[in-house]
Amino acid sequence: MSILFRHGPKTTIVAQESAIRRKSSSAPFRITNAEFVAAASAVDQIPKLNDRPELRAAGRANCGKSTLLNAVLGRKDLLRTSKKAGCTTTLNFYRVGEHPGSVVLVDAPGYGARGRPEWGDLFDTYVSTRKQLRRIYILFNGKHILNPADLAMLAHISDTLFTQEGTQPYTLQAVITKADCIPNSSLGQVIPTIQKQIFENAPLCLPPIITSAVMRPMFGIDAVRANIAEACGLGLLKK
Question: Domain residues for 127?
Fold first, then answer.
């Protein structure tokens, strides 16, 4: 099914599965609560949270990560947003669902030009030691094709997907943000180019979900919720 994008004078057709909305209308699992739990700027500050399944969100600075996560959680300002890149400086843990929660969402500092070496060390330690990690979401700004920092992060995460024993404890999911900012005339080139870059640098990455958190109605948010629920073995997430 094709969903019509409308953003001011823009009208863009993007192919997207329609099953998400049909399933979510009868979903048994709802986002009834989401709250900040803890922040970690060092490895010894990473909290223990009762082994609830965890999902980690990564993205280059100013890719729209916090805005998208607020939309997914049905909140306007749970995660701090800013037009200035780099406002997230710690690993931030959010409990989703009534206490003790069904899922823990982990928001991380952006990588790239504004990233810091210590953030990379914190990321690697968290990923390599967190047994409850189920999926890493890597977000890309749809206004641009992937830059060297994006490609390096994709390849780096891809290299961590399997343990030395050959098991795969978590999966990697790409998300394209700010789809409303892609010019109509460029959509047919930008999205396929990003998809090709993702596959070439991380062949096991799941196909990207295309989103916009500022369009009305928002686009792709239900798809992200359903993806989170699938990753954690829950009923569909629904606000």
Answer: 2-238
